[in-house]
Design a protein that fits this description.
alpha/beta, Rossmann fold, four-stranded mixed β-sheet
């Protein structure tokens, strides 16, 4: 759905603007951690240890990715946390607890990359969050996935996090010349109206190259359409954070 691309590049742009940013990788695939330049197989600690230990801080695992950009990394063993935490009474609040530590106050914004599935890890992200940004690929049947996500989101909001708000629906991998993409965007706009943000254009060469070089689009291909789109998204997010 473009979620990891969005989290990393949005975070990198915000950091470049001087916003003290923390990225939290909750996805067992650890793509965000890899894109930030870290070898997941060599990590001694990750979000797995934070969640499994019920830690009250992220500080021991946080790594520096760039100026103003820090990362709480993921590892492949996070997949087993889904099962191991399933019977824990506080299984949904473990990330929230860790983020409430005094160390987290040093960051202006925290961006969480959750798995694509609606399991314990994703619920932890939703319970800890104040706002939700939903990246959706502009392709046929994409709205089915969005509706399922939103049903789960409002369930979490009603039971576990009354303050959770929808920041926006972000169309990604948008190819203006493809009729199916145009139709998918039109459907999103008809359903979500003002919640639909400016699409992130498909820019395969720039995104693949940036990921392979462990660099944000803003540095790897600053003039690319995708990089410019993330600059606009960062401006929107920064303005939303300033709005009382």
């Amino acid at each position: 759905m473009g979620k990891t691309t969005t989290v990393f590049n949005l975070g990198a742009v915000l950091a470049a603007r001087g916003v003290r940013t923390l990225l939290v990788d909750l996805d067992p695939q650890a793509a965000l951690t890899a894109w930030a330049g870290f070898d997941t197989s060599s990590l001694k600690q990750s979000m797995y240890s934070v969640l499994m230990d019920g830690a009250d801080t992220l500080a021991p695992i946080v790594l520096r990715a760039a100026d103003n950009l820090m990362l709480a990394p993921a590892s492949l063993d996070l997949a087993s946390a889904e099962v191991a935490l399933s019977s824990a009474p506080d299984r949904a609040q473990r990330l929230q607890r860790a983020l409430h530590s005094s160390e987290t106050a040093q960051y202006d914004i925290v961006l969480v990359d959750t798995p694509a599935t609606l399991g314990v890890l994703t619920v932890n992200g939703l319970v800890a969050a104040h706002q939700l940004l939903i990246p959706v690929q502009c392709e046929a049947l994409s709205m089915r996935g969005v509706r399922a996500v939103l049903e789960a989101v409002w369930l979490v909001r009603g039971r576990l996090n009354h303050g959770l708000e929808l920041l926006g629906v972000l169309p990604t991998v948008f190819r203006a010349e493809v009729p199916g993409a145009q139709a998918a965007l039109a459907e999103m706009q008809s359903v979500f109206r003002n919640w639909v943000l400016t699409p992130i254009p498909a820019d395969d060469a720039a995104i693949t190259g940036a990921s392979a070089s462990s660099a944000p689009l803003l540095r790897h291909a600053p003039s690319s359409a995708a990089a410019q789109a993330y600059l606009r998204l960062a401006e929107f997010v920064a303005n939303e954070q300033r709005t009382p």
